[in-house]
Structure formats: structure tokens, C-alpha cells
Amino acid sequence: MRSSFYTEDTISAIATPPGRGAIGVIKISGEKSLEILRKIFKPFKPRLSFESHKFYYGFIIDPETERPVDEVLVVYMKAPFSYTREDVVEIHAHSGYVNLRKILELVLKEGARPAQPGEFTLRAFLNGRIDLAQAEAIEEIISAKSERALKLALNNLSGRLSEKINTLKERLLYALAQVESAIDFPEEDLEIMNPQELSQLIKREIIPEIEKLINSYEEGKIYREGINLVICGKPNVGKSSLMNALLREERAIVTPIPGTTRDFLEEEAYLQGLPVKLIDTAGLRETEDPVEKIGVERAFQKLKEADLVLFLVDVSEEPTMEIKHLYQRIQAYPHLVVFNKIDLIPNYLEEWRKTFFKYGGELIEISVKKELNLDLLTQRIYEKIVSKRATAVSEVMPNLRQKTSLEKAKRHLEDALKELQKREPLPELVSIELRSAIGNLSEIIGEITTEDLLSEIFSRFCIGK
């Protein structure tokens, strides 16, 4: 991202992913867009003007040689009715690396410059088409890992989060007006600023709404980023087989030899529409093998990073003190106890049930080999994660940056409450806290921002967006 935001020039980039495909799009934005198009585009039917938002068929040509580069469709979108609210041209060509690069080179040669990552969306923000929360929602749509994440991003793009933030700001501005009236008219002896009334407004109407948004971040995070699901247990209890079953492919090596997995193995999967990073760990046991010992240490480290641990037990073997001691360590983490190999006869299922009954943990009984109760297991994983993260489903969920601003706003409001609850509250101090809280909310939608923040946000976008 450039160090200063200059929007008077014309920018261009390839807006579609690299590689072979049906269509590739070159996007141009800025006042020279139509001028550049006229220089490199030869329409099938000669024309003097281009109507906005209408496709035209023809060829991109090299102005120096008059040779065609590609057969294309082009569309001109006249400002302000475009993504950036500037004049925009899109060239829809065949998707191939050589021809798209050649077309882009011609566009740059005729007066455009290469767009930086996220610069088209940055211009949409700077030109007032979208606010900052909506701009971030666009990036979240592109990177969505689940349908739920996509829906949340679309809600934010439609302005639902911004509406909530603006409503909170309006209430705070109302409160601030009363406080500042008390400052401007001190002879009223705080009759204009009713401390008790303001305290109730902040405590009952504003802070609870902010807390709802803060709490909903955790649920939104699991749909945006996914969860870490760690499979652990003694060697040869079926950890790798369970991982393969959840992945529905033979990813982990499975053998009857204990200790096959000597390091953790990570793979991406989806369980009940939830993005999950499955982590198969080395068997947990005392060992003198230096390589296996490192694997066991890494397994315990992964437990600390887990959102949920599946503690796998082989019920074809008798309960031992070693398993009990191992489970005592597992209890420190969010977990499910999974009894595997229930299909084997004989087994010690009843003994295992009695052993774990006194611990009060939840038990799931499965057979990976026979695919028994695997659907039940995935359902319980989903329920365990979602119920742990959120008590109610929200349609508006902030990202980490927005959550941080909400937390700052909440702290300022709590400080304002402390002042209002004093025998003789100082309107000046209350005003400072309310203004700070309003500023934090304004950061979320971009009314107050810095160049460094904008650079950090938009640099995460792909080039061409």
C-alpha cells in the first residue's frame, strides 16, 4: 500500500485469479479509464460513444502494431455509479496468463498505473460508497470458509453492523449533549445533566448492546477462522484412523504397530459446515525413544492450542492406571472422551464406562472401523464448540479490530459511570469519557481512522479488489 492515498490517477489490475479459465477480467478505475479503452479497443461496430453499463464486443489491439491481442467484451461504468464511484472499465477477455498480462501492459502504457492490494475497495471507501466495516466485510466474503461466515460477512456488507454502531453513537451523542450543556451552563447546578438518568441510559441501554457485540465475536471467529480439533490418546487406539474417517480420505498412515505417528499431522476439514483443523498427535506414553519423546512433547503442546480435544480410548483393552493418570492431564482442556473399537468382541466397555462415570465427563462410543456413531461424534463436536462460544445466534458479529474498539468504548463508558456515581460528578470528566467512547465507535465504521490503519486493513486484500 502506498504511503499516501492519492486517488486522482487511474489504476488497473487483473481482477481474476491466475491460471487457465473461461474468463479473465482487467479492471480500470479513474478519470482516464474511458480514454484508455478508446485507444486499445476496436469495437465490432464502430461507434463514437459508449453507453454506461452496457457490454460491447470487439478486440483489444496493440496501438503501435494494430495487431489484435484478444477477442473481448468491455463495459464502461460512468461515475458515480460504479464500485469505486469513479469511471470504471472492465475488459472481459479469455483467461490466460500471456494475453491478460499483455492487455494489462497496454493499459499501463496508455496512462494507468498498477493498483495496489485492495486499492479499488480503498477508493470505494474514500469516495463514500461504503464505510470501513463494509470494506472489511468484502474481504471476509472473499476469504469465507463456511456458509455461516459468508452470511455474516454479507450482513456486515449490507450495513447491519454499521447501523448498530450508528444507533449506539446517537444515544451517546444525546448523553454528551446533556453533559456539555451542564458545562456551558454551570449555574443550572447539574439540573440539565441528571447523573442518575445518564447512568441508567449508559448502564441499561448502551453497555449491554456493546457487550452483545463483543460476546458475538467468539462465535463469528469460529466460522471465519475455524477451530483446532486435537485427537490424542495412547498409541494404537485409532487416532489416525479416526482422522482419516473425519477427512473421508486416507491421509494419515495406519498400521497395527504402536507409535506409527511420531509427530503431529494437520489437515483442513469441514464438520457440520464448521471449518476445522484436524490434528493427529503422537501416542501419549512414557518412552525412551528420543524421536517419539519429542512427538509426545509436541502432542501436549498442541493440547494447549486446542479448541476441543478428542481423548480416544481403546475399549478392547482393560482400564489401567496409566490411562487414568493421562486423563487427569486431559481434563484441564475442553474435551470429549471417545471410546473406540466398541465392535470388537470381547471388549471391556462396561469397565471403561464405570471407570469414567465418576469423572462426570461426556462419553461418545464409536467404531471407526465399522463407522458406528461417527455422525453422532461430529454432531457433538459441533454442539460442544458452538454452545461453548455463544449463548445465542447473532446475525452481526465484529472482527478482531472492531471487537477491540468496542472493548475500548466499554471501558470509557464504565469510567464515565464511576464519575456519574460520585456525590458531585464533574461534567468535564464525563464528557471526556463519552467523547472517547464515541471516537472508538467511529473507528469501527471509519469516521475516525489513520493512514496506517487503512494501509494495514486494505493490504490484506488481493490485487484487483
Tell me about this structure.
- The longest helix has 31 residues, at 195-225.
- The radius of gyration is 30 Å and the shape is flat.
- The chain folds into 3 domains: 11-127, Probable tRNA modification gtpase trme, domain 1 (Gyrase A, domain 2, 2-Layer Sandwich); 147-222 and 404-446, tRNA modification GTPase MnmE domain 2 (Four Helix Bundle (Hemerythrin (Met), subunit A), Up-down Bundle); 226-389, 3-Layer(aba) Sandwich (Rossmann fold).
- A 7-stranded mixed beta sheet has the order 3-4-5-6-2-1-7. Strands 9-10-8-11-12-13 form a 6-stranded mixed beta sheet, with helices on both faces.
- It starts with 10 loop residues before the first strand and ends in a 7-residue tail after the last helix.
- By secondary structure, it is α/β, with parallel strands linked by helices.
- Mean pLDDT is 85; it is low at 251-255 and 257-262.
- It contains 15 helices and 13 strands.
- Helix 6 (160-184) runs antiparallel to helix 7 (195-225).
- 46% of the residues lie in helices and 17% in strands.
Sum this structure up briefly:
The protein is α/β, with parallel strands linked by helices. It has three domains: 11-127, Gyrase A, domain 2 (2-Layer Sandwich), CATH 3.30.1360; 147-222 and 404-446, tRNA modification GTPase MnmE domain 2 (Four Helix Bundle (Hemerythrin (Met), subunit A), Up-down Bundle); 226-389, P-loop containing nucleotide triphosphate hydrolases (Rossmann fold, 3-Layer(aba) Sandwich).
